[in-house]
Design goal:
single chain; 102 residues; mainly alpha; 4 helices; 0% strand
């Protein structure tokens, strides 16, 4: 028996920036709701709303990080993680060699 009311999670998809821009433009026209545009293109309403929100932030119409700031933040977080791992490895090597020399 199928579980009632539960949907399978939708697989994660990626979309070209041109497609996202087209969806944002359709949502901003105002003749259809964001939900209707999302439904017409088989998208989640949440994704379409997030794309509109991000486009507004990029255009300076809304507070928040721009796309380039988000990319830089992600890059810096990755670099920070790598540097923390490097420091940890150096600490371990230092402790190892300190014990070896005794």
């Amino acid at each position: 028996m199928e579980s009632m009311g539960k949907k399978k999670p939708r697989p994660r998809r990626s979309f070209a920036s041109e497609f996202k821009a087209e969806i944002v433009a359709l949502c901003r026209q105002g003749d259809r709701s964001v939900g209707q545009v999302a439904k017409d293109f088989d998208l989640t309403e949440t994704a379409a709303r997030e794309w509109v929100r991000q486009a507004e932030a990029d255009a300076g119409e809304r507070d928040g990080l721009t796309s380039s700031e988000r990319e830089e933040l992600a890059r810096l977080r990755r670099e920070n993680t790598r540097l923390r791992q490097d420091v940890d490895n150096l600490k371990r090597a230092s402790a190892f060699f300190a014990n070896e020399s005794r």
